[in-house]
Specification:
The complex is a heterodimer of chains A (391) and B (502). In chain A, 17% of the residues lie in helices and 31% in strands. Chain A is an alpha+beta fold. The radius of gyration of chain B is 22 Å and the shape is globular. The chains are: A alpha+beta (391), B alpha/beta (502).
Chain lengths: 391, 502
């Protein structure tokens, strides 16, 4: 077979395998793989519903390695990131994490992600899409260096109500770690972050420490029924928590071919991030001048059918938007959706979704009422409690 | 209008801009880093007793509105009559300022007359664009001011308009070779179209550069050198009430509340202003004065990506006695040494690879033929613009030596024995021009002047209408429309936009 590992034609290269792959492969009996940013990742380990159930009731492990990671460091890193992102980075203390976003000149969202402050001049930015050219150009004029470190860091998400108990059992004392906090323990960095809206942690280590860490957590979690999960279960959990994904719920501005498809953070419900008073950041002038045309809303849909890809109507007749993500939520026992609709109708009581449900090779067409939900569909208190529940 | 305006940079554009703003009632302060104003329009003593225009040496297309309102003549500014152009050779060809060719066979003259009439007709139709802010590609345009220009194009008639459209993006060599048969006339067109450009005559879009040059009118020599223009503009600006501060550099802008509010000067002083105009190059203004932190990343990207590729060098020679171009060559004319299209193209080839040509093409003026006071008695000064040299040569010393030897060899052919009569010489390579005049990359036009950097693309579309992408900051250098040459038009147009916005 042709060796394509060093090819100049990267699309011919086989997907990368993460440092956890030897364990994942053994567990993925149905070989349910999917590509993610050039990596081979598990969609499920055979039973998505059980995996979701574990996220909400016990503890789960998810291989986070393909998450794109940048190291930004130097005396000017804080100023550079303050100019890049929407939130006030001067208020981000070392050992803390910000969920943040960043825009192009037109104030359209390029991506959202988490910004870790590891030291006064040391940051890590984690996100869905690749942004190296934009980050390098954003560093012009600042005393800061940007490097991509995705492959240098192995990462696991340990999520679920038992996750603090599992960590304690594995020898990590996280009792003092608050949400969006970071700690270091024996070569592993632990942050209280996640994408499930539940109690959970993310663990970051070097690739050579990946398998020992996996084994340690699986062993410690065995009494609580810890199980690996794939992206399908995580996707349900994140919709329950109301989190958005680049490329799914919004088109990253750099990828939008149609001029009107890129949206502002205000339109995507991230307006709370914008630190208007912090000084200049890219897109600020455009955002100040912009009038929101769209609004990302959470919808609770009547009935028990997922509204994936549905068109949103007002009064059953006028098209006003599109569902971007939807699920039947086993946790809340509701049909939930995220949708981008006409901003003027964000709180309208007269919204409907038209669902085409394929039932044994025939479409069943439903027009279901959809109610905007002011809060995330699922947000248990335990996600915030410090010290965390030890169950 | 009673606002405080700070103008940074005292070249022709900065001076024209400051004048127009002051005349409209603004309190204007102009800061210039050098001891004298003028920027690229300066008269320098390059050797004891020998003076020449230090950079630009011909006045072509100076803004008529600025000249009139600034009353430059009343302030003592005089120019020669429009210059003829001479192409030396066994039988020199002379092209009068009117475009009339003499010294050639009747059929050659006929071709020349036809092409001249055709190019001039197109140039006249495009000329009004120079005086307007560039039209917007998107959004509202001021059709009241655009209408006459657009109508002028519309009246051209279908056949003429089609001809213009065909010529707009073509290259100068094709037109020269299609329509002319004399190699020297072909060479002249090739040379003029690429003078000051980073392009050879076979590069696309070069014919438009020739049309732009023709739209600027005939070249003239200023009496006393280009410094005399700067002096007259200085007097006009002072008479208009502008506070001039030479020898003072603006180090960086003061930005408060998301607006340019003034500048920190080299004296340490902070000069507050309601509006800041920069006649420095757009990149220096945005990245150096304003700073990336005050701009969006996309703008920083644009400013960083701007090409600054000066390909022209300036040579000053002090000659004892007559330069020796022989009878039939009027020293008061502009002498062009570019014997054919291929000579120009070949001179351009090596710079693409960071090397200098050893067979340059050049434009020579002899300012002492008009103003003997520029040199001691019995001596002449030659002011020469020679092309092409790389702005960043692989081996600067070798490039310089090779290029200078090439110029001298060409001169020797045109004026036998001239080498022995050279008493002093000063060669400014693009890097020297950058160091002396602050022109990034040695680019005379504050950024490549080419079809992809014209009108609403100059310096780039987000900043094309003189307003910088930072509130309170305006761009008024040759890096903005309508580009290079000592014209003052960018400054004049920018002032118009500032007044309109007020």
């Amino acid at each position: 077979m042709k060796d394509t590992s060093t090819t100049h034609r990267p699309w011919e290269r086989p997907l990368l395998q993460t440092p956890f792959h030897p364990r994942l492969e053994a567990l993925n009996h149905e070989a349910d793989w999917a590509p993610w940013s050039g990596w081979q990742t598990a969609l499920s380990f055979g039973d998505t519903e059980m995996e979701l159930s574990a996220i909400r009731s016990t503890a789960t492990l998810y291989d986070l390695t393909p998450m794109v990671k940048y190291r930004i460091h130097g005396p000017g890193a804080e100023a550079m990131l303050n100019r890049l992102t929407l939130r006030d980075v001067t208020k981000l203390k070392p050992g803390r994490v910000q969920y943040t976003g960043w825009c192009d000149d037109d104030g359209h969202l390029l991506d959202d992600g988490t910004l870790f402050r590891l030291g006064p001049d040391e940051f890590r930015l984690c996100c869905q899409e690749r942004h190296l050219p934009w980050l390098l150009d954003s560093a012009i004029g600042f005393d800061a260096e940007v490097t991509e470190v995705t492959e240098e860091i192995a990462a696991l998400a340990l999520q679920g109500p038992c996750s603090a108990w599992v960590l304690a059992e594995a020898g990590f004392d996280v009792s003092a770690l608050r949400p969006f906090g970071i700690m270091e323990a024996g070569g592993v960095m632990i942050s209280r972050t996640g994408f499930t809206g539940d109690l959970g942690y993310e663990l970051w280590t070097s690739p050579d420490q990946a398998l020992p860490l996996w084994d340690r957590l699986i062993q410690a979690g065995a009494p609580r029924g810890i199980r690996p999960i794939g992206s399908a279960a995580l996707d349900i959990a994140r919709i329950e928590a109301g989190f958005i994904v680049a490329g799914v719920d919004f088109v990253p501005a750099e990828q939008a071919l149609r001029e009107d498809r890129a949206l502002t953070p205000i339109e995507l419900g991230l307006g709370w991030m914008i630190a208007w008073e912090k000084g200049h950041f890219t897109g600020r002038r455009a955002l100040q001048a912009a009038t929101p045309r769209w609004a990302l809303v959470r919808l609770e849909v009547e009935g028990n059918v997922s509204a994936e890809g549905a068109i949103v109507y007002r009064g059953k007749t006028r098209e006003v938007g599109t569902v971007t993500s939807a699920i039947w939520s086993p946790t809340t026992k509701r049909s939930l959706a995220l949708a981008v609709i006409d901003a003027k109708l964000a709180e309208s009581p007269d919204l409907w979704v038209e669902i085409y449900a394929m039932r044994e090779l025939r479409y069943v067409k439903l027009m279901q009422r959809a109610r905007p939900a002011p809060r995330p569909f699922f947000a248990p208190e335990r996600r915030r409690a410090t010290p965390p529940e030890m169950t | 209008m009673a606002s405080n305006i700070l103008v940074i940079g005292g070249g022709a554009n900065g001076l024209a801009c400051a004048f127009r703003l002051a005349k409209a009632g603004a309190r204007v302060t102009l800061v210039e880093a050098a001891e004298q104003v003028g920027g690229g329009a300066r008269t320098v003593e390059f050797a004891p007793g020998f003076r020449a225009s230090g950079l630009a040496h011909l006045l072509q297309g100076f803004d008529a509105r600025a000249a009139k309102e600034m009353r430059l003549e009343r302030h003592g500014f005089q120019t020669s009559a429009p210059l003829a152009t001479i192409l030396p050779g066994e039988t020199p060809l002379t092209i009068a300022a009117s475009g009339e060719l003499s010294g050639a066979a009747p059929e050659v003259t006929e071709e020349w007359d036809a092409l001249t009439a055709r190019l001039n007709r197109h140039a006249r139709r495009l000329a009004p664009f120079r005086q307007l802010p560039p039209p917007r590609v998107k959004g509202r345009n001021d059709w009241m001011s655009l209408a006459p220009t657009a109508l002028g194009l519309g009246r051209a008639g279908r056949r003429d308009l089609r001809d213009l459209m065909r010529l707009l993006l073509t290259n100068a060599a094709d037109v020269a070779e299609d329509d002319l048969s004399d190699p020297r006339l072909q060479g002249l067109l090739a040379f003029e179209a690429t003078l000051g450009a980073w392009a050879g005559p076979r590069s696309p879009g070069t014919l438009l550069l020739e049309l732009n040059r023709r739209a600027m009118g005939a070249p003239r020599l200023p009496k006393g050198g280009m410094g005399a223009l700067a002096g007259a503009m200085r007097r006009a600006v002072e008479a208009a009430g502008v506070t001039l501060r030479t020898g003072t550099r603006a180090e960086r802008l003061v930005i408060e509340g998301d607006r340019a509010r003034g500048a920190v000067l080299s004296t340490g002083e902070v000069l507050a202003a309601d509006q800041v105009v920069s006649a420095l190059c757009p990149r220096t203004t945005l990245l150096g004065l304003a700073g990336a932190a005050a701009l969006d990343t996309g703008i920083v990207r644009r400013a960083t990506a701007m090409p600054f590729r000066g390909g022209a060098a300036k040579l000053h020679l002090a000659i004892e006695g007559d330069p020796g171009f022989g009878p039939g060559v009027d020293l008061g004319a502009r002498i062009v040494l570019a014997p054919s299209v291929d000579h120009v193209e070949r001179a351009f080839n090596p710079v693409k690879y960071g090397e200098a040509t050893d067979a340059p093409v050049m434009e020579i003026t002899c300012p002492t033929a008009h103003d003997p006071s520029l040199a001691p008695e019995g001596h002449h000064v030659l002011s020469i613009i020679a092309q092409f040299v790389p702005h960043a040569p692989k081996d600067p010393a070798a490039a310089r030596a090779r290029f200078l030897a090439g110029i001298k060899a060409r001169l020797e052919e045109a004026a036998p024995g001239i080498g022995a009569r050279i008493r002093h010489e000063e060669l400014l390579m693009p890097s020297d021009i950058e160091a002396r005049y602050g022109l990034t990359g040695g680019s005379w036009h504050h950024g490549d002047f080419a079809v992809e950097r014209m009108l609403f693309l100059r310096p780039f579309h987000e900043a094309a209408r003189y307003a910088a992408p930072l509130p309170g900051l305006w761009l008024a250098s040759a890096g903005s429309h309508p580009g290079g040459g000592v014209t003052g038009t960018a400054g004049w147009n920018a002032a118009g936009q500032i007044l309109r916005a007020a």
